[in-house]
Each structure stands twice: as structure tokens, then as C-alpha cells.
Give the backbone structure.
Amino acid sequence: MHFLNHIFLIVFICFSYTKCVDISVKDLKVEYLVNPLAVDVAEPRLQWTLEATDPQKHSLSQKAYQILVSSDEQSLAKNVGNLWDTGKVASDLTNHIHYKGKTLNAGQIVYWKVKVWDQEDKESTFSTVAYWGKGLNTWTGQWIGAPNGLQHEAQKQLKDIDQKVVQSHQGLLPVLYMRKQYSTPSTTKVKSAILYATAQGVYKVWINNMLVSDQKMNPGWTDFRKTINYQSYDVTNLITGKDTAISVLLGTGWYSGYIGFSRQYKLYGADQSLLVELHVQYEDNTTAVIKSDNTWKVSTGSILYSDMLHGQLSYENLEPKNWRFLNFDDSKWAQVVARPTDKNVALVADSGVPIRVTQEIKPIAKWQSKPGIWVFDFGQNSVGWIRLKKPAGAQTRVQLRYAEVLNPDGSIYTLNLRSALATDTYVFTDSSENTVEPDFTFHGYRYVEISGYPGEPQLTDLTARVIHSDTPLKSRLETSNPLVNKLISNIRWGQRSNFISVPTDCPQRDERLGWMGDAEIFVHTASYNGDVAAFYTKWMRDVVDGQSAEGGFSDVAPRMVDPADGAPAWGDAGVIVPYTVYKMFGDLQMVSNHYEPMNKWMTYIGSQNPDYMWTKRLNNNFGDWLQVNADTPKEVMNTAYYGYDALLMSRMAAALNRPEDVKKYTDLHQNIANAFNKAFVNSTDGRIKGDTQTGYVIALAFELLPEKLRPLAANHLADNIKAHNWHLTTGFIGVGYLCPTLTQFGHHDVAYKLLLQETYPSWGYSINNNATTIWERWDGWTKEKGFQNPGMNSFNHYSLGSVGRWLWQSVAGIDNNGNGVAFKDILISPKPGANLYNLTASYHSINGQIDNSWVTNGTHIKFNALIPVNTRATIDVTFIRNETVHSNVGSGSYQFIGELNKHYDQVINELIF
Ligand code: BGC
């Protein structure tokens, strides 16, 4: 065919099918999740992302969409939406679109797809098909547990040494083994089978010896007194014949195992229970529900305990052989006991993100700390456990102890774990299986000590299995500076390690709690690192479950340790987290769902502090936790936080279109600011009581100072840092706002100095001393003093890593523009400086992927930006001589090349240490 004919043909096809659109529709999600099988919310929110087929094309957008939802895939394939057909909706929305179709039945699975029209009204193809399921409205299964005494019977078989552990740790109960075998009444094939399951404890389920999922530690941790999450699994392929065996391992978990400080166990109940329903639909359309009831059997087995803080103990010879297979003889097993359902506890489809093994790490070195005692170094502090290759031969007792750091003699240092034993012990009797790993525990560690292993264990015998709530962590930020890259890596590891069902303070010692102060200071950074919206959606329910009758949020969520309500900056997470999730993901539903609890918190503070100073209802009143000899007066910090709450409430009220509340909270913010200024601020020179970095930072960041005092206060802040020889002195609270505030008020060079500082106290100091995660304290270990007080010295706390947000916003320069949310209106405003000769940043926002990168030799720079389809951006490239701010540009890739202007030139030269 002639060349021109080719062109003609292509043009003809384009016209005839109107498919030559430059956009494709990807990543369909429901309530932030990929194909969730149980969604409880009445009108689930649908979302997708758009991708340009050619990034060189600019200003692509979505002018309209059409969503089809069908009860079966066949109808959908014919483009029939028998449950919902939106028709062509003129809208540029791609997320938070509520399903408004026919009411769905409990357990129903529905299929959906979407197509869009671009700015020229060209139509895309339909996306691939996605699905979601409606959760269960009612349960007919019964809670089942072990009869009295069964677990204690098992413990009698322990050796002396283990008896002692169990006796001194009374909560250490054996893992329960439960099973049920049934025959199907129907002879036809299974069309679909969904398993719904949950526990007061933690569980794993097998069907016909096949594990139903790779999810770990389900059902996770909630305030079990009020809410229990259930999970759902597609098990269609596991049910093959007429007979089916369901087998369950049931551990104590957060429900009745050890959590929090040393002696806390059985916090929610004496021992574990299970609730299961298997819904099967056959091809002849008959259905069956197999559920937990008093016909199930229960026993104990090889796992004498598997406790989150203390680890696991297994006696291999106690394992009932083949118990998960069909036709296992369970006649000697006990009958389970059915337990009453507590009507006050809500059973809720899990809206969070499952915990999974997301990585495996092999050790990089090993040595003997004593003859026969081997220490393995994995090179990275992480969370999870060891998968161990079983030693050859029988009758061995192998013990693994986990630790974050080492003593000077190369042995493991475990004092900072406090009472957490963090030990996995296996008593092997044969060598039939290749590897072993614990079931319901996790440890925070870099080093593992192994004893009792016959011969010399090899590096290949141990594998670190890394777990965390598997929030997609797609965003990437990298520079030419190894120190900055290590900081970024440490922040990410801090996040991964502490996102275990709830956002925790630390993953290793006897604590691991959902500390609210830590959460509020890190939520912004976390939201840059990955898609954490579902994770926080789940957690906000824990927060609200923990609110006291008077309106006090707690210090930790799920609430448990301390009956006191939350301290300033800790309880405030109840306001700051929804606001941040709204800002980063556009989640107005989270704001409206929790608006009343937030209001109540404001009243809780306001009712006892009528003079607008937060001096009452301070509860644990932690202050700027772990600051460095620079204690910000608590009344300053607390009142500033009250002001910040009011500011955020006024913004959220505006987003919800509640003008009266906008006024109420704007006035409140102003009144608090007035009181703050009157009591603490020198109205001529802008000095703030206490004269600390944190004091200046929060007064500026929370918009409490009159305009004329702001530059003065910012100068005091910069001077204070200079007076400390370019060191920070902030604790948990100040650190989160420190660099952003410096940049905002014209001291970006000072922020860079802090970033690149390598002497104590600084991030660089920890990195130069082998940190692979963020430390709890600036001086977790120092050359002069060695380890800090072991009573509180975690090497894997994310709080001081809250600087991550500034790296994204102000160094890489990816932010929301002004009042914008969810990166629909983007501000690209990078600030090259220091010795960052290259930077590449890729942020996966809910509205698409934003890429920034630069390369500079210190005098000239090349800067690239990629703006996602269907968004607008303001690109500030004034760091390039004779360049300007490009307002409101459309999608596509942009490149700017030129000479750095003088200011940045200077920054770069000054800061090469
Ligand atoms: C935790 C912190 C927490 C603090 C309260 C500590 O034990 O580890 O991260 O915020 O207590 O001040």
C-alpha cells in the first residue's frame, strides 16, 4: 500500500471509531482499594487515574466520564450497566465519585468500568473491568473459642525453662487450632465462594490446606470494645470437590496478648475467639453458608505461644500431622464453645490496608559473640521476622533473639526492648520441612542472635521477612547527595516499620502504640511517601472510638494505656489527621464523617479555657517531647496548638460549606492569636516567651503572629539556629514545622544547613552513626555517652522524620497550590540549593503522577516537570535567571534550562561544607 494510503487509513479509523484519544484510564479503585470484596459504606467512592499516551502533548483533560456498573461481567462486556449507568456526565472529577446506582445486596459482587471524553470531546476506550463487593449486613455464624482448661493443658507439656517464661508471662496462651469439614449438598460446580472472617485475636485460614491469603496479622488492631474489622477473601478456586476442610490458626494478637507497656495483656478479653462465614454460590444458583458454630473442633498444637511482644515458642513434636487436610481425624479434638455476640461491638468491613510481607532481606555478615552463639547482621533495621532453614538432624532447640543495635563486643543489645522478649524458639524433632517462621509475632530489628543451631549457620539459612500495612509506597525522591538519600530512606523505613495496622510510635519494645502526637506530626510526610488514605481512614475510626464522653481524644488510638484524655499536640491528631488527608487526597468525606467528633474536641478544650489560653485539660502535657535543652514553655506550645486546631477547623468548615462555623472558628483562631500575643509575644521585637526554636516555628506556622512581627520572629528563629552553630534544638513537635517555616519566611538556606548538618543534634549525626531508620532521640547513641537511657531509646521511631514533607514540598517543590487539595491545582516550586546537583522526584498523587527533576553544575540548571493529565499547575522557575512564574499551565512535560540566579548560586556555594 502506498504511504499516503496508510495515513488515510489511520485517519479513517480514528474518525470512524473516534478512539484516537490521548488519554487512557487506569487504576480503578473503590474506597481507595483495588477490588475490595467487602465494602460497608452506603455509597462507596469510585476513582481512576488518567494517563497521557504521549507526555509531549499538553493540556489534556477530562471533560466527561461514563461509569457502568453491572451485576455480572457478561452484561458489562456488552456495555450494559444494569446497576448503574451514569451516561455521559460532564465533569472533570476522577475520584471521590459516590456510587448512586441500585441498592446492592449483602455479599453481592459488582463489576464496573469507566470511559472518559477529553477536552476535545474525543472518547477513550473503556478501562479494564474492576469490581467490588458489598459487605455483610448480618452474621449468622457464631463466635467460637476453646473450652476452659484446654490451653492450660497444653502448657503442662513445656520444659522447665519454657514453663518459667509462661508462668512469669501469664498472658502467653497457646495458639488454637480449629477445623471444620463439610460436604456440599450440591453436586454442581462452585461459581463463587467468599470467605468472611474475623477474630478476637489474630488468625490464618486454610481451605483444603491452601492458605486463603498472603495477609498477615488479621484482623489487625481496632478498639475491640467498640469495633472489630472483618476481612473477605475470594476462595472460589480453593473449593474443588464435594468435601471441604476449613482450618484456622488463632493467636492472641492485640486482643488478649501482650501489648503496650510491660504488664498489659488480656486487655480486651481473656482469650481468643473466631467468627467465620463461607458463602458459596454454585453454578446451578443454589447457595450454601458454612459458618463457625459449636460443631467445629479445637485443639492446641506445636505453637505454645505466639505473642507480639515476646515472640513464638514451637515444639515441633506437638504438631497434629496433616491437620489441615481433608479427612484428618479430629475425633479426639475438643468441641469448641460458642460465645455470645456482643451487640455493642460493630462488625465492620476492613477499610484499611492489609499487612503483608513486602520484601525479603538476606544477611550481610555474621560472627560469633560467644562460642556457638552467632549474630547475623541484615544491614537494615526493619520489622517482621526470620524465616529459618531448619537444621539437619533432629532434637535441636534453636533460639533467635532480635535486636536493633549491638554492644561494643559485638553481642546484641536488648536493654532498650524493655520487657519485650522478642525471641523465637523452635524445638525441632525432625527435618521434614525446609523452613520455619513464626505465625503471630513481629520484631523490630537489624541483628539476630541465633543459638542452638547445630554446626555453623550460613548466611543463606536466614531470611528477614519484612512486613507492614501494604500501603502502596510508589513515590520516589532521590538526589545526588548520599546523606540526603539516606535520610529519605530512613524516613521511608520508619514509615514502613510503624505502619502495622495502626500508626505506631515504635515497633520493637514493649510499647508499639498508636501514639497520636507521633501520628499528627508525620501524617503529611507519610502522605507524600505513599497512598495512605485507606490506612488513615481505618485509623480515624480507632481515634473516634477512643473519644471520651466529654469530647477528649486520647493520647493513643486505639485508646488503652492511660485513662487520661489526650495531651496538647497528641489529642489534636483528631483534627490534624483528617485535615491532612483532606488536603493531600481531597477526602471531604473523612472531614464530614468526623466533623462532630472534631467539634466536640474543640468544645472540650474551649469549655475549660474561656480565656483562649490552653491551660486546663492538659492531661499528660508532654510538651515538645525530646527537645534538646530548649524546653518551650508548655503554655506557649499548648495555646499555639489550640490556635492551630481552630485554624484547621475554619478551613474544614469552609470546605463543607458551613459559613457559620467558618466564622466561629476564624474568630476563635483570632481570639487565641490575640491571647497568645498578649501573653507571650513582645509586640515590638517579636520575641516569644521561652525564646526557643519550636516557639517561633509554631507561632509562625500556625498563623498566630501579626504580619509585622513575622519577619522578626523568623529572624529570631534563624539567629537561634545560628547561635547553636547551625543546629536544631526542636523535639517531636517543633521538628515537623521547622524547615517548612524557615523556607516560608525566607530562610531556606538555613533549612538546608540543618538538612546537611552532620554533628549532634542532626539527622546527619544519626546517619553517620549507622542509622538505617529514624531514631526516637537525637542522642539515641553518641560517641561521648554511648546509648541513651534504655528506658526509652528506640532506633525506629518515625517522628523526627517529619522533615520528609519539606523535602517534597520545598526542595523537590511539589505541593498543592494555595487552597488547592489533592494536587488538582499543583504548585511546582523547587528550590535547588546546597550540593544537590541532581534531584528526581516522582509523587503519585490521587490525581496522577507528578515528576520533577533537575540537574545542575552549580551555575546552570536543567529542570523538568511532568504535570498529570486533567490537572493544572503553577510552575515557579524563578531560580533561573530571567525566568518567571508560569501560572495555570496544563498537563504535559515542561523543560527549563538556564543560569541559576544569584541567590541560588550563593546558596549552593555557601553550603558546600
Ligand atoms: C512514645 C512516644 C510518645 C510519647 C509520649 C513515648 O513512650 O514512644 O513516641 O509520643 O511516649 O510523649
About this structure: The mean pLDDT is 94. The pocket of beta-D-glucopyranose is lined by residues 505-506, 511, 515, 517-518, 622, 625, 792, 797 (CB under 6 Å). The first strand starts at residue 23 and ends at 30.
